[in-house]
User: Which sequence fits this backbone?
């Protein structure tokens, strides 16, 4: 049976993650309060951030940036898309 949680991002009861997706306190908080659906939304947003900002996950400063954006996206006011980002259907 799926582990159900109250997802703070979606504001509803939903299936929880199977394990903490990030190390430390932030990962535990995500595990306890973020649903699989909301995590998938973050993963899509993160992919855009990584590609558009040319993020290198091996760079500690880049990891700090991703962690801060993750926290804003999942728990705060949201994470902005990069200015240069244009969805595929709107590219010239």
Assistant:
């Amino acid at each position: 049976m799926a582990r159900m949680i109250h997802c703070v991002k979606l504001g509803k009861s939903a299936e929880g993650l199977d394990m903490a997706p990030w190390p430390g306190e932030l990962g535990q908080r995500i595990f306890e309060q973020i649903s699989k659906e909301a995590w998938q939304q973050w993963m899509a947003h993160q992919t855009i951030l990584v590609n558009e900002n040319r993020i290198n996950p091996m760079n500690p400063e880049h990891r700090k940036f991703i962690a801060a954006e993750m926290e804003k996206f999942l728990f705060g006011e949201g994470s902005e898309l990069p200015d240069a980002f244009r969805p595929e259907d709107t590219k010239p």
User: Anything to note?
Assistant: The CA atoms of residues 48 and 81 lie 8 Å apart.
